[in-house]
């Protein structure tokens, strides 16, 4: 394919994408295909002879679209949002064209330098303490990880390196293995599964602590667990506080947890994967009170800030522990400017990294802070609209508090009837949501996900749920 043909192909694809997104409301949100649907639709082996790009374009509707769940449909309410916007799509095209692997500064200076500045822009937008920002002139700074799961693991490894260094200073004869066998990390039982997984991957014990009635981890619970473990001779070293839990979007008490971590000299990581985007609006920043105690902070612009996957932004007050923990420095990766600017390969698990800061740059410039704030506020307003519908019908109840763009709800009554309602909603396929369970309580989660969602979509979804609830209740009365 030469450049002329590339331009024709790409223009045709851009037209297709524009049309797909403009008309996405008309598609059934949930695919109806069965496992194995795709194999019979394409040949058994790769083609021997080159094909025309037009043939590929024709196959998108025939082969791919039937098996797509339309995450950007205004009637997609499952999980949490994943972002999509035109500036981010265009930025990814440029990133793919430059196609550099920005593991060190010299590997493509713009890739590193734009990332450093974008993380400062974004850090300022959410009012992070200046110790997290590279522009403050201290040690701190930000990095783009692929996912929040990676950020939690990277922070855990940094915390592990820090405690090993500290214990060895006090007790030079103790072995690394002895220390590691005594390490304990903590998070709430509502923390995302990736947090517990970070413990497994990092080879340390993770304790999931109970929450209060509002599904928040409180400082006193953490303090008690730490004392209990210290009394057993164990070494508490890492705490993850969640701002915006996955099940109900509750917020751990960061101020209380932070004070405990400060007193106990424990690394505090804040996982705000979904809700962190809302902190660009000053009225939601009360939820991050206590952030000054954190050592690392992470949220996913690729969830709620219109930057396409993957873009998980992480800030560290002192990246040295992480940089040193992962520092393997073969000659072929060295360069003369080492030390003057970050070499991001030391801040992450893989070596390779894409030019992801372009997406942040394009999105922040094309929208401006005011339109990004409007996006967040609009989505939260839609969540409240939906919550009002739920409250207007005495057969339903809300679970947890509606603070962000997530409403958790259930039919008053058994879990069984709610499971049936859930099954019928997804079987109908007009809207899509997922359930969750806390202890013995089964409920449904309605997340505002698409940037195309408008009030009539909320009303549509509510009427669908209400209608199916009436049917389910009637079937139980028979
Ligand atoms: N933390 C929280 C609170 C989440 O809600 C999620 C995913 O929804 C994650 C972490 C994991 O995110 P990622 O897929 O970026 O690893």
Count of individual helical segments:
14
N- and C-termini, Cα separation: 65 Å
SS content category: alpha/beta
- Assign a percent range to the helix content: 40-55%
Given as residue ranges, the uncertain stretches (5+ residues, pLDDT < 50) are: none
Distinct compounds present: pyridoxal-5'-phosphate
Radius of gyration, in angstroms, nearest whole number: 24 Å
Overall pLDDT, averaged?
94
| Strand arrangement across the biggest beta sheet | 1-7-6-5-4-2-3
Main beta sheet: strand number and arrangement? 7 strands, mixed
Which band does the percent of strand residues land in? 5-15%
Shape: globular
List the secondary-structure elements in sequence, H or E.
HHHHEHHEHEHEHEEHEHHEEHEEH
Strand tally is: 11
Summarize the model shown:
The chain has 478 residues and is an alpha/beta fold. The chain contains 14 helices and eleven strands. It is globular.
What does this structure look like?
- By secondary structure, the protein is an alpha/beta fold.
- It is 43% helix and 13% strand.
- It contains 14 helices and eleven strands.
- The protein has helices spanning 3-22, 53-64, 86-98, 109-125, 148-170, 176-180, 193-202, 219-231, 254-264, 301-304, 320-325, 357-391, 415-428, 455-477; strands at residues 141-145, 183-188, 205-209, 235-242, 267-271, 296-299, 312-316, 396-399, 406-411, 434-438, 441-447.
- A seven-stranded mixed β-sheet has the order 1-7-6-5-4-2-3, with helices on both faces. A four-stranded antiparallel β-sheet has the order 8-9-11-10.
- Strand 2, helix 7 (193-202) and strand 3 (205-209) form a beta-alpha-beta unit.
- Helix 3 packs antiparallel against helix 12 (357-391), helix 4 packs parallel to helix 12 and helix 12 (357-391) packs across helix 14 (455-477).
- The structure holds pyridoxal-5'-phosphate.
- Pyridoxal-5'-phosphate binds next to helix 5.
